[in-house]
TrEMBL record:
Signal peptide per UniProt: 1-31
The species this protein was found in: Micromonospora parastrephiae
Protein name, per record: Cellulose binding domain-containing protein
Keywords: Carbohydrate metabolism, Glycosidase, Hydrolase, Polysaccharide degradation, Signal
Domain named Fibronectin type-III: residues: 487-577
Superkingdom of source: Bacteria
SMART domains to which the protein is assigned, alphabetical: CBD_II (SM00637), FN3 (SM00060)
Domain spans labelled CBM2: 575-686
CDD domains given in the database record: FN3 (cd00063)
InterPro entries found in the cross-reference section: CBD2 (IPR001919), CBM2/CBM3_carb-bd_dom_sf (IPR008965), CBM2_carb-bd_dom_sf (IPR012291), FN3_dom (IPR003961), FN3_sf (IPR036116), GH (IPR017853), Glyco_hydro_b (IPR013780), Ig-like_fold (IPR013783)
Coiled coil location: none
Length: 686
């Protein structure tokens, strides 16, 4: 049994323990006689697809790592990045003599063989430097060999793999020979690794290991560290690193892991908040990679294909620069039946051709593609380097939608039916894009299929999605798109208060006509709300709601009426007012990974006492709750929290404060509230 598989089982048990909380129950499958409404909004721009987007892991225990057949299959699936030497093995692997003491190293898996496989597939490498049993000097020598001696141009290097699993938080699967296993020591050594490696090749990018917000050990502080793992690592190593590396195994049943894809926007939002808060100046230069993903149920069958396409799309549209499936080959596990198909419990996307120990069940022949391989192939058809993701959404939890706009004006739409039992008809509405009457190019992967079928059929506005299926539509626009202005540059926000913000952006480059004005839009789900327009490159937005998150785009319109693509998105959050008759201080302490001790302190800033009070706020997500509380009466309805006093603290004297506490619980990224209302007045926050 590989180290990686044991680690995944441990994480699964931790994640399953967290699902007892509310907000994670998946929707039940049901027949859908009425069409699902799908909205695709080309005005609501998201991230641009990078040339490193689609990745996989290659491991040194895989004797087929360097074969031409394997590399050609990965090339055909659109793989753009390969990670080496493989998960937890990275922290016991010594590249010079190609050994991994305590583990198995297959023949023909050395670094040069890996690089030959990378080049044959037309991909880029992601290399993990040995932190657990290695040294900065060993990592620097590897950089020298790769980029100076051999000229491989290996750009991305991560320091270690899941190093929070070294026993510091009580669970130990990751090798770590350092006497000090703290997050602080890991961060200090990341600085040493980065300095040593960049002294050899200043052009490389060095990454540090973080944990996924809302997943163990996020939020937990251990030993003498100044805070949880992410905070500690970023506070010390932030100025020296170029990206952070995160893994995610959502766990649970097939339905639960498919539902947990909804965690992605809040998880990536929290990661960027952590970067901004702790990583020092210019933290927005730090990228995010997700280099391990997989599921517990249906690893080789349709749930994995659906999860892969949905999660890759969600992460990439959130600005992650690469997403990697675990693994290329891994070997047979527990054999089950999933939605009528045999699932071999194999983490690999290609068959290893192995059998159970008793020989009763064998996988298909070596390199037979499993469902996640076809899911990756669907991503190749859907999202190409340079495409811009645009917002898409549905009114049915079992149907997901993603969309990209291409440089030639085409639009591609990815539709996923997560219902294993029922087909779902969909009606598609487009904003900012008018499809031509030509039948779209349609690619479909159905449950149990051995490949994707592609043809031209139907219309751009209606389709029936088979049960447990992935469908991509590629649509041509009506009329010519030449001559439009280029998209404005990345907007920034300044002067953000509870009610207003000033948005500024680099000017757009004109196309066939001069720029006439800029239009500022807010993304409201899959619908855009125009906030205003201006002839300058700055706009102040008023009438915002305190404690709310806003994502905006800027579009340029020229004197001929042509509209540009959307700018990159800008996300910012309003807080409470700078001054108010009340102040609320919200605190958290003793976080244990899916809960914490919370507190609210209410201060009366007025000149008269407050007799009788009601404090309210709304949780930013649907998976946060108040489990219990004290020194007040606590109520929660949906995401809304209502706190009222006891007889002992009904009155708050002028200038005085009262406090109350609660046990908070969460089963996903724990985005804390930032706006509080006392007796109808929005309070300042302390």
């Amino acid at each position: 049994m590989h180290i990686q598989r044991r680690r995944a089982s441990l994480l699964t048990s931790l994640l399953l323990a967290a699902t007892a909380l509310s907000g994670i129950n998946p929707p039940t499958a049901s027949a859908a006689p009425d069409p699902v409404t799908v909205t695709v909004n080309a005005h609501a721009g998201l991230a641009t697809v990078p040339d490193t987007a689609l990745g996989v892991n290659h491991a040194i225990w895989d004797q087929n790592l360097g074969t031409a057949e394997t590399s050609d299959l990965l090339r055909d699936a659109g793989v753009q990045m390969m990670r080496y030497p493989g998960g937890s093995y990275a922290d016991i692997y010594h590249w010079k003599d190609h050994t991994a003491p305590g583990g198995y190293v297959a023949p023909n898996t050395d670094f040069d063989t890996f690089m030959a496989a990378v080049r044959r597939a037309g991909a880029q490498p992601m290399i993990i430097a040995n932190y657990g049993t290695g040294t900065p000097a060993e990592a620097a020598d590897w950089v020298r060999y790769a980029n100076v001696t051999k000229g491989y141009g290996a750009r991305y290097w991560t320091v270690g793999n899941e190093n929070y699993g070294n026993g510091h938080y009580g669970s130990a699967w990751e090798a770590d020979d350092h006497p000090d296993k703290s997050a602080s020591q890991y961060a200090r050594l990341v600085v040493e690794y980065a300095d040593a490696m960049k002294a050899v090749d200043p052009s490389i990018k060095v990454g540090a290991v973080l944990t996924m917000p809302g997943n163990w050990p996020d939020g937990i502080t251990a030993g003498s560290d100044p805070g949880p793992w992410n905070q500690t690592v970023l506070s010390i190593a932030g100025p020296k690193i170029d990206f952070v590396d995160v893994h995610w195994y959502p766990g649970g049943t097939a339905a639960e892991s498919l539902a947990r894809v909804n965690h992605i926007p809040d998880a990536t939002y929290l990661l960027r908040q952590q970067l901004a808060r702790y990583a020092g100046a210019n933290a927005d230069r730090i990228g995010i990679s997700f280099t391990e993903l997989n599921v517990d149920a249906g690893r080789n069958t349709q749930p994995a294909a659906l999860f892969l396409a949905d999660a890759y799309s969600g992460l990439l549209e959130s600005g992650v620069f690469t997403v990697h499936w675990w693994n290329v080959h891994n070997g047979i596990g527990t054999v089950t039946q999933v939605a009528g198909q045999t699932d071999y419990g194999d983490f690999g996307m290609l068959s290893s051709g192995t059998c159970t120990e008793d020989g009763s069940v064998c996988e298909p022949p070596l390199n037979t593609p499993f469902a996640p391989y076809h899911g990756l192939s669907m991503m190749k058809l859907f999202a190409k380097a340079g495409d811009q993701f645009v917002r898409a959404g549905t009114d049915e939890p079992l149907v997901s939608a993603h969309a990209v706009r291409r440089g030639n004006g085409d639009l591609a739409v990815l539709l996923l039916n997560k219902d294993p039992d029922n087909a779902h008809p969909v009606a598609i509405d487009y904003a900012g894009f008018t499809p031509s009457a030509v039948a779209p190019t349609v690619s479909t992967l159905t449950n149990g299929a051995t490949g994707i079928t592609t043809g031209q059929s139907g219309s751009a506005t209606s389709r029936t999605l088979p049960p447990y299926s992935l469908t991509t539509l590629v649509l041509h626009p009506v009329g010519a798109t030449a001559g439009r202005p280029a998209a404005p540059g990345q907007p920034t926000a300044s002067g953000v208060t509870g009610r207003a913000a000033t948005i500024t952006w680099p000017a757009a480059t004109p196309g066939g006509s001069p720029i006439a004005k800029y239009e500022v839009y807010r993304q409201n789900g899959a619908v855009s709300e125009q906030l205003g327009e201006t002839s300058t490159t700055s706009f102040t937005v008023d009438n915002l709601v305190p404690g709310s998150r806003y994502t905006v785009n800027v579009l340029a319109r020229d004197t001929a009426g042509r509209l540009s693509w959307a700018s990159p998105p800008l996300t910012f959050a309003t807080g409470g007012p700078a001054a108010s008759s009340c102040t609320v201080r919200f605190t958290t302490a003793n976080d244990w990974g899916n809960g914490y001790i919370g507190g609210v302190e209410i201060t009366n800033n007025g000149t008269r006492p407050i007799t009788g009070w009601t404090l309210t706020w709304t949780w930013p997500t649907g998976w946060q709750q108040v489990s219990s509380g004290w020194s007040a009466t606590w109520e929660q309805l949906g995401a809304a929290v209502r706190v009222t006093p006891t007889d002992d603290n009904r009155q708050i004297a002028a200038g005085a404060s009262v406090s109350a506490g609660f046990v908070g619980a969460y089963s996903g990224p724990n985005v804390l509230p930032t706006a509080f209302t006392l007796n109808g007045t929005v309070c300042a926050t302390g």
